Amino acid sequence: MIKGVNKQVVEIADTGAEYFEKAIFFVKPEFTAVTEGRLRESAKHSIDCAAMPPKIKEPDEKDGKLWFYVKLLIAAAAGAAVSAIICLTL
Fold it and tell me: Residue 33: which residues within 8 A CB-CB, separation 6 or more?
């Protein structure tokens, strides 16, 4: 709760977003002269951007298989190296 502070607030009750019920924006003091319509438009744009799920790049199937084989080759080489060290020390 803010007490004793005079702030201009823009409240959006119907966000139109699946995840958000209500949004409250506190306007910076230097922008208090901006029209309410412009502030609401900017707030709505912010809500629209926040409501979009992040874009996640799906790995290509070729890249996934290639990485699997590289890891398999590294594991096999490490196993062979450990086996060689054990055999040489005996």
Answer: none
- H-helix or E-strand spanning residue 47: helix 36-51
pTM: 0.48
Over residues 9-59, the pLDDT tens digits come to 888 888 777 777 888 888 888 888 888 889 888 888 888 877 776 677 666
Question: In the 8-state DSSP scheme, what is residue 20?
Answer: -
Rounded CA Rg of the chain: 29
Contacts of residues 65-70 at CB distance under 8 Å and 24 or more positions apart, as own/partner, are none
Q: What are phi and psi of 20, to 5 degrees?
A: -120, 135
Counting DSSP H helices and E strands in the chain, the numbers are 2, 2
Q: Are 46 and 25 in contact (CB under 8 A)?
A: yes
